[in-house]
Amino acid sequence: MAEIPALPQELTDYIIEQIPNDDVSSLRACAVTVRAFRHASQRKLFNHIMLNLCTTSTTIPKSLRRLEMILAASPFLVSCVRQLTIYEFARRMAEWLKSPVLPSILDLLQGISELVLDFDHRSWWDLSPALQRALQTSFARPSLQALSIVRLRFSTEAGHGMFVSIAPPSRPLIFLRHLTIQGVVIQGRLRVNSLAGHEAPVIRTESLTVEADSASEMQKLTLHTALDVSALQSMTTVMYSSLEEQMQAFWRHANRLRSLAITFMHTYHEPTALNLSSLPLLRSLDLRISPDRTVAEGHTVNPFKHVTNLLSSSRLGGSSLLELTIHVVLGEGEDSDHALDDLILDAGLAGILESLSTPLGLVRVVVHVVSLLVPMMKEGHRERALGELKRALQRVGCLEVVWVED
Fold first, then answer.
1. Residues 6+ apart with CB under 8 A from 163
2. Alpha helices of 225-280 — where are they, by DSSP H?
3. Where do the structural domains in the chain lie, given as residue ranges?
4. Strand, helix or coil at 124?
5. Angle 220-155-83 (CA atoms, 0-180°, nearest 5)?
6. Which pLDDT score is estimated for 193?
7. Superkingdom of this entry's organism (predicted)?
8. Overall average pLDDT of the 182-201 stretch
C-alpha cells in the first residue's frame, strides 16, 4: 500500500493558525496526536508564557520548577517563546523571590521580544540580586522590543532611581520599540539628580505609555534625563493640571512625535493651557475626556474646553495633523440627558472644528461616546445630543461620529 503523502508545511501551519491561542486543549491534542502538527502547535502553545505567581503558599510553585526543566531540555521550545509575563497578585515574602529558578528561566529565554512585569506594588529591592541581574540582562537583550513595568516600587535615593535600577551594570543603552510604565511608585523625596542617576540615558524608545495614579508620581516618572526621547514617535499619557509646564518641556525634546494620546484627569480648575506647536510631525491626536462637569474649588470645568483650547491655541496649522479622535466617557452620576448637547455646545467644539479644519488639514474626526448609562437615557436623546456636532462635521467633510455602548 502506497504511503499517504505528508501535507505541505504551509498547509499544516495554516491549519494550526486557525486554532485560537487560548484553546490550549486543542493545541495540546494536535501536538501529541499528529506528528506533522507538533512543531506548529508547540510554537503557538509556547509563544506567550505567563508566570502567574498568585499563590497563597510561601513555597515556589511546582509548575515554575517544571517549566525550568522543560525549557532546559528543549532548545526548540525555548526558541518558541516570544512573550513573557511575570504576574503577582498577593504580595508576600514568597520563596520565588530568593529562588534561583526564575533567574534560570530568564537566562534560558534569550529570544523574547516582549516582557511584562506586574508585581502588585512590590519593591524592586524585594527581588534577589540574582533576579535583579537576570531582569537587567533581559532588558538589554537585542531581541527585546517591548517592555512593560507595572505596579513596581522604586526609590529616589542616590543610585536607586527607576531607570538606573533596571539598567545592567555595564549600562549599555537599551533600545525598545515600546516602553510601558503604569502604576509605578517611586518612593522618597523628588531630586532631579537622583532620578537621572548619570548623564548618559538608559533607555531609548520609539513608543512610550506612561501613566501614574497621582500627579506627584507622574512628576517623578517624567522629570529625569535617563530616558532618551529623541526617537520617540508615539506617546500615551495622562495629564494633571499641575504638570502641564513639565510635560511641555518633555515634548520639546520629543519633537519627532507622530502620535499623541492624552487622558485629562479630574484635577483641572481651568481648561488646559497646553500648546502642541513644538510637535511639527504630529499626525494623530487622541484626547480622552469625561464630561461630568468636574467642580474644583468652586470652578466648573467643561472638559470639552480642553479640546477647543488645545486646537485653538496650539497653532497646529504648521503641522501635518491628519486625524483627531475624541473619546468621550460618561461615568456614573452623570446627568446623561444634558451631558453631550450642553457641554459640546457650551465649549463651542463644533465651531472650532469647522473653523480650524481647513488650516489644520483634518481629514477625519471620530467621536467615541462610551456610556454606562444608556438604559437611563431618554428616548431620542442620543440623536439630539450629537445632532449639532454631526451637522458641523458634515459641513467640513468629517463624517464619522461613533456611539459605543459599553
1. 195, 197, 202, 203, 224, 226, 227
2. 244-252
3. 235-406
4. helix
5. 85
6. 41
7. Eukaryota
8. 61
